[in-house]
Amino acid sequence: MDSLGRNLILLGVVLVVAGLLLQASASIPLLGRLPGDIRIERPGLRVYIPITSSLLISVVLSALLWLFSKFR
């Protein structure tokens, strides 16, 4: 049961950090406007596909998780 409690606490911390990042994402200037992000705007249609931003976030999160696993 100790590992279950530890995992639930870790999940809570991850969710809090994710919430804080979502709140702060509006203040990150380049996120969503990087080269490779696809934006199509026409009358009555708006399509946005953040390919490069998603890759960047994935690399950063993967590096952080790798660092956390090394210290575990």
Short description:
With 72 residues, the chain is an alpha+beta fold. It has helices at residues 2-24, 51-70, and strands at 38-42, 45-49. The two termini are 18 Å apart.
Topology at a glance:
Blueprint: H1 2-24, E1 38-42, E2 45-49, H2 51-70
Antiparallel strand pairs: 1-2
Key descriptive features of the protein:
alpha+beta, 72 residues, two-stranded antiparallel ribbon, 60% helix, 2 domains, 14% strand
How would you sum up this structure, described in words?
There is one protein chain. This protein has 72 residues and is an alpha+beta fold. The protein folds into two domains: 1-30; 33-72. It is 60% helix and 14% strand. The protein has helices at 2-24, 51-70, and strands spanning 38-42, 45-49. It has a two-stranded antiparallel sheet with strand order 1-2. A hairpin with a 2-residue loop joins strand 1 (38-42) and strand 2 (45-49). The longest helix has 23 residues, at 2-24. It is elongated and about 55 Å long.
Mean pLDDT across all residues, rounded? 86
Q: Report the uncertain regions.
A: none
Strand content: 5-15%
What order do the strands of the largest sheet run in, or round the barrel if closed? Answer: 1-2
Number of strands: 2
Largest sheet: 2 strands, antiparallel
> Which structural class do the helices and strands define?
alpha+beta
Give the proportion of residues in helices. 55-70%
Specify the overall morphology.
elongated
Number of helices: 2
Distance between the termini: 18 Å
Radius of gyration equals 17 Å
* Number of separate structural domains: 2
Helix and strand pattern:
HEEH
